[in-house]
# Entry
Amino acid sequence: MAKAAVVYACAECGYSAGRWFGKCPGCGSFGTLAEEAPAATAKAAARPLLRLVDVEVDESERIATGVPELDRVLGGGLVPASLVLVGGEPGVGKSTLLLTALRAMSEERRTLLVTGEESVAQVKLRAARLGGAGKVEILAETELETVCATLEKERPAVCVIDSVQTLYSGELGSAPGSVAQVREAAGRLLRVAKEAGVATILVGHVTKDGSVAGPRVLEHLVDCVLQFEGDRYHEHRILRAVKNRFGSTNELGVFEMTGTGLQGVPNPSELFGRTQTGDPGAAVACALEGTRPILLEIQALVSPTDLAMPRRVGTGVDPKRLAMIVAVLSRHAGVALGSADVFVNVAGGVRIDEPGADLPVALAIASAAKGSAVRDSLAAFAELGLTGRLRPATQGERRLEECGKLGLEQIVVAAGSNLRGKLRKTEAETLRQAIRHALVEDRGQT
Ligand SMILES: Nc1ncnc2c1ncn2[C@@H]1O[C@H](COP(=O)(O)OP(=O)(O)OP(=O)(O)O)[C@@H](O)[C@H]1O
Ligand SMILES: [Mg+2]
# Structure
């Protein structure tokens, strides 16, 4: 019988080889290769198959988190026994959000907070600031085996691990926060979550420093990845689903950070969709984020430059899309931008990835370049093609409805959108026509 091949695997990066190396050829770490047990060759017994229709499921009911904006992003609440990863930069408010949700959920079911970053006293202080601790149970622990054993014994309905980077398994040689540790922690917690029926929320840090494993390595493991974004210098925070096995992605929750915690903003359009009328360089977009239309003010500044390569800087818009829009404006709409810097900013620190916002971005830039304001109470949505033609944006009627709610009167859309509704709609075939319709006074620069 052939001898089972011996495999050496690196504990850091998972590289495997047929012989031992002092230095791992995969990641360059020293002394991390160890012999792995050869795969068991014993014959496994076959198992009977099931028909999918015969599988019995107890209709798993979602757990309302008590934070409506969080429920919306999760797709209607937390799914029991699921694993959710909440990522975000330091200080954005992850612990605050999850403590608020835990407290609300603790009224109905057992909830546990595993804190590895803060002491029990620090969490207590935060809870006091947020208005009480409810019946939340707490465990200050960083050893993975202890956390898993406790979860299996206590079986709370919901558990928050703050943060996954602090968990440490003695079985692995690597430091806490390394890729191997984080992956191991998530893998084991996943098993416990499914077996013990604990809905587990992992907090993960995203750092610019590569030494700490970002939560990216976990994305394929977990059921749902939420990204908490925002600027520490602004009070608004955006929660968005990047991946969701139980709901739509790109769903958006908007919060305001106050001294007493995070307050949900149920109607963000009110907040972000207003322009100071009469100023050139501002346009209102109606973007669709997940299932929710949202009005956003887009501001642009066009300023002459002597730089050989003029700058195109976008905050909240994708740089590639911005470059494309600037090129289409120059080539097809007669807005010369070759010797000008272009800056674009989306109100409230919101990021838009959606093609329906192409037209309003182009309108804001054209308005800034021509020094002519966009008409009062006008919003726009359409996708921009490379030929300068406009394409209808998806779900136009829902967007129109949102514009109506906010009292906008005139909407510029792509020709062929076929929208019903009371608002005055102007259909434009090309970007050039849309600019002519939208600006107060198109000074006709061609
Ligand atoms: N007294 C206060 N008044 C207003 N805002 C506060 C107050 N205390 C804290 N904050 C806000 O809460 C934020 C920190 O929240 P939190 O600790 O939940 O963040 P975090 O994402 O968990 O951070 P970390 O990554 O460090 O764990 C601060 O950036 C600040 O905006
Ligand atoms: Mg925290």
